[in-house]
Design goal:
CATH topology of the largest domain: TIM Barrel
CATH architecture of the largest domain: Alpha-Beta Barrel
Structural class: alpha+beta
Bound molecules: 2-acetamido-2-deoxy-beta-D-glucopyranose
CATH superfamily of the largest domain: Glycosidases
Oligomer: single chain
CATH class of the largest domain: Alpha Beta
Radius of gyration: 28 Å
Shape: globular
Number of strands: 56
Number of helices: 15
């Protein structure tokens, strides 16, 4: 939306009905962006960069050399560094820039640890750098760097000679050319351009640029950087969220490139390469033998051209014969408006290795409080205290668990954050207490735009202290957002972040408690009257950087302030923050959702595609507005959306202010029961989600995963993005089409002979034994989900109103056996709230089943004292039904009852505490 003005509500509603989607003409195409035009043009002419002989310097962990552009003789500093864990870092900057060029800060979780290198010069002029059994081979002229994982070429940098680096220059050196004429020629006949024409001098947008009514002063002129990366061992590329597109990246030949530029795009188009709210410039190439990645660390507007192996991915996969590639390998061409070339090469070799290498650089979400993995109930807006209390009570009345109520912008006093509307919310602390006494939480929205009102303390502080982002002539920038006239704190300034963080302290923000968590929206930043609904690029930030240089980091810096605020407010509670804008590394501070989607089936389908991509880019904690933000879902869509939403890590229903109320009890009984059934299922799996998030923090392995993460050889599975894995334990294929009684489910192959795992339907324990497509019947309650044979997972099956009340509830272990009659799986538990787990106050245990016996093995010493115990053990896949089971604890054996059921048996009441060693043996 944004239907901004109340008086225009009717017009707005009309607009919502008439338009299916955003108007793309509000946003730039590559052709309307001068640096994208220029950088892309190199694809037809190539460039000429070479190492300068005699400039090589080698160090223990890196080497440096000078590069020259052979056309204009400008010189660049090249650095290649080895990092521990099979990664390299490659940087190119100007040797002597007119002024420093921006280098991204705060995205990495710390200084990457470098690894030792060995350097060898070959007779043909190549330079070979080895580190950890991997190598980089530098070719001097034309400049190219090839990266080998264990002797297999996985990433080739500048193999296409599309390196393009616009050095900073004085404007007077660059007399404007006959521009109109040139632009025509450029459009009509790009192919015959000479290489020289790629130079920025001739481009009419080089020194100033207009888009619609907006002017960009561009005082520093052209300063783009671009580079190509080929993935010779890959067949498909994925990554570079956020786009509402398929998991596998599509060719951009004949279309615009994928765009990375944080924007407030309402009712976004699906199957689109348009930019959205977040930008994470990491890409992966995957083939059966190797997965490799590239993290392009640049926070400026970025476009990425994708060359696929062949136009038709599926046929190329079928025809592909290893080692005899018929077409060039897939490649990505990153083009950024400013900054430097700073690329991290992640060598894999397996998908999870590459994801972990990326996590080693940019971090992971820390273990969230358990309640934040449970169900969130939101709407723009819950109108007043009565509304909040009554919605909460209705969930109890209808026995639907719910953990968190959300308040959107209308709770504030006129969109002044850190205040309340005193008429609608006269007693916020009582309202909050009412929720927390039920075990529930409250989340409130706090956006970065600040109302320009000299009766508002926050605005006065920012004005007096100079905390706002500035225009190029040094005034406070003023835009238009929810509060009307607004300014934007410059979170790049550490003093501003400290000030912002201090506002969350309970002696400042007295009308909340430390159980109230946070939603940071509109932080792209959204500026209703700005170019492309965001901030102008020639604004000035702390350190004298232009907004152009740092745009995609603005939301990230906002999050740093917010996260610090919540941590300082209560150092022993893990913060929960939801953000819309994000960049590489923002996963350390916040969960994300896919923004202002639409109540239609295609947006439901894209929720999975988008979150799968985000999960490979560090953002496991991802979800979509259940029901769709805009529009009114019918009963069937809402049911299916809940059923899908419970298998994404962040699970929240949310709706636009102009939509009809859609709490579950407002629908016919059947819909309410289907939703209740789905939400209860989510709650029963909370121990699995919680364990998966702990293991994400420990290892960097995503919580949800594409099939290829565990079935890297199965080419048919590469592009499947209507299914997902939860760790390697569940295979989820939600129903996401209208009116179907069957869905086709793909069971992946473990090898190239099409052998598959065993899979057990989680409702019926019916087995799937073969790989390939299977048509599965679904009624309105059915959520097609299978547990992998060979896995064990924890559940809790008692029904409560909120997850916080389940802490001492007993566990059920579900054991699904593989063909050898074996299974294993982990469980993690702690106090679900504090940082005590960082001091070892947790229980992390691995369960192993083999030869009819289940044992536990603690990972680390189990220090946390839990009152929970194991209530039930379900075993599926046994050849015979046992007569009973004996459980041995501390040398004492007790006999247990084993009850046979369809497809599984249930071992009743093992009764063992979570921190106690035991062995359970089936008797026959
Ligand atoms: C708190 O709960 C009580 C009891 O249900 C109710 O009467 C009261 O209105 C609630 N107060 C607020 C501020 O929500």
């Amino acid at each position: 939306m944004r239907c901004v003005l109340g008086v225009l509500a009717t017009l707005c509603a009309l607009f919502l009905i008439l338009s299916d989607a955003v108007d793309p003409s509000n946003f730039k195409t590559c052709d309307q962006s001068s640096f994208c035009r220029r950088s892309r043009k190199v694809q037809s002419s190539g460039s000429k960069y070479a190492l300068i002989p005699g400039t090589l310097n080698t160090y223990a962990d890196s080497l440096t050399a000078d590069l020259v552009n052979k056309e204009n003789h400008h010189q660049f500093a090249f650095k290649l560094e080895a990092l521990v864990g099979s990664s390299f870092r490659l940087q190119i900057d100007e040797k002597q820039p007119l002024k420093p060029r921006y280098r991204v800060e705060h995205a990495l979780k710390g200084q990457p640890q470098t690894g030792r290198i060995r350097v060898q010069r070959e007779t043909d002029g190549e330079i070979v750098i080895t580190s950890e059994g991997n190598k980089a081979v530098i070719h001097g002229d034309p400049f190219r760097v090839d990266f080998y994982e264990n002797d297999v070429l996985v990433v080739s940098v500048n193999a296409k000679n599309w390196l393009y680096f616009e050095h900073l220059r004085q404007k007077s050196q660059e007399p404007p050319a006959a521009q109109a004429e040139h632009e025509n020629q450029q459009e009509q006949d790009a192919a015959v351009e000479t290489p020289k024409a790629a130079d920025a001098i001739d481009d009419p947008g080089a020194w100033e640029e207009n888009f619609k009514s907006h002017h960009d002063a561009k005082p520093y002129g052209p300063e783009a950087v671009a580079l190509d990366f080929s993935f010779p061992a890959a067949e498909i590329l994925f990554g570079i969220p956020e786009h509402a597109d398929s998991f596998v990246l599509k060719s951009t030949s004949g279309t615009d490139p994928y765009r990375l530029y944080n924007l407030d795009v309402f009712e976004y188009i699906v199957d689109s390469k348009m930019a959205l709210y977040g930008s994470v410039p990491v890409i992966y190439g995957h083939g059966p033998q190797r997965t490799a990645g590239v993290y392009w660390q640049n926070a400026a507007e970025t476009w990425v051209d994708i060359q696929t192996a062949e136009t038709n991915v599926v046929s190329s996969l079928v025809n592909f014969v290893s080692g005899s590639r018929k077409s060039p390998p897939p490649a990505a061409h990153f083009m950024s408006e400013s900054g430097i070339v700073d690329a991290f090469i992640l060598l894999g070799p397996k998908p999870l290795d590459a994801f972990k290498q990326y996590a080693a650089l940019t971090g992971t979400h820390e273990l969230p409080q358990l309640f934040s993995l449970a169900y969130h109930q939101s709407r723009w807006n819950y109108n007043d205290e009565r509304d909040v209390t009554s919605v909460s009570a209705k969930f109890d009345e209808f026995n639907i668990p719910m953990d968190t109520m959300w308040l959107d912008i209308e709770y504030t006093d006129g969109k002044r954050y850190f205040t309340w509307d005193k008429f609608k919310f006269p007693q916020p602390l009582t309202m909050i207490k009412n929720l927390t006494e039920l075990g529930r939480h409250l989340v409130v929205i706090i956006d970065p735009h600040i109302k320009r009102d000299n009766g508002y303390f926050f605005h006065n502080d920012c004005t007096e202290r100079g905390y706002y982002v500035k225009t190029r002539d040094g005034n406070d920038y003023e835009g238009w957002c929810w509060p009307g006239a607004a300014s934007y704190p410059d979170f790049f300034n550490p003093v501003v972040r400290d000030y912002y963080a201090s506002q969350y302290a309970l002696d400042k923000f007295q009308t909340v408690t430390s159980d109230v968590m946070l939603w940071n929206d509109m932080n792209e930043p959204s500026v209703f009257n700005g170019p492309e609904i965001t901030a102008p690029k020639d604004l000035i930030h702390y350190g004298n950087w232009e907004h152009r240089d740092v745009h995609n980091l603005y939301g990230h810096m906002h999050l740093m302030g917010s996260f610090a605020g919540l941590q300082q407010r209560d150092p022993n509670q893990r913060p929960f923050i939801l953000t819309r804008a994000h960049f590489a590394g923002s996963q350390r501070y916040a969960a994300i959702w896919t923004g202002d989607n639409l109540a239609d089936w295609s947006h439901l389908q894209h929720s999975i595609k988008m979150c799968l991509t985000e999960a490979t880019a560090g953002f496991s904690f991802c979800g979509a507005d259940v029901g769709g933000f805009f529009g009114n879902p019918d009963a069937e869509l809402l049911e299916r959306w809940y059923q899908t939403g419970i298998f994404l890590p962040f699970f929240r229903a949310h709706a636009h202010i102009d939509t009809k109320r859609r709490e579950p009890w407002l629908f016919p009984e059947r819909t309410r029961l289907v939703i209740q059934n789905a939400v209860l299922k989510r709650y029963s799996y909370l121990p699995l989600w919680y364990t998966a998030f702990y293991e994400l923090e420990q290892t960097g392995e995503p919580v949800i995963r594409p099939l290829l993460a565990h079935y890297p050889l199965d080419k048919e599975g590469f592009a499947i993005d209507n299914q997902l894995l939860v760790q390697d334990r569940l295979l989820v294929r939600p129903v996401m089409q209208q009116g179907v009684s069957k869905v086709d489910v793909y069971f992946p192959a473990v090898d190239d002979k099409k052998n598959g795992d065993l899979w057990y339907d989680v409702d019926t324990y019916q087995r799937q034994e073969k790989s390939g497509y299977v048509s599965v019947s679904v009624d309105e309650y059915k959520i097609p989900v299978w547990q992998r044979g060979g896995s064990i997972l924890p559940k809790k099956e008692r029904q409560r109103r909120a997850s916080t009340l389940m802490i001492n509830d007993p566990y059920t272990l579900i054991i699904c056996l593989d063909r050898q009659g074996k299974a294993s799986g982990s469980l993690y538990l702690d106090d679900e709230k504090s940082y005590a787990y960082r001091q070892g106050q947790f229980i992390h245990v691995n369960y192993e089943f083999a030869n009819g016996q289940l044992v536990n093995r603690f990972i680390g010493k189990p220090k946390y004292k839990s009152d929970a115990w194991i209530e039930r053990i379900v075993i599926a896949g046994l050849e015979r039904v046992p007569s009973g089971a004996g459980i041995t604890v501390n040398g004492v054996t007790q006999q247990l009852e084993v009850l046979p059921h369809e497809g599984h048996v249930v071992v009743r009441k093992p009764g063992v505490k979570m921190d106690v060693d035991f062995a359970l043996k089936l008797n026959y």
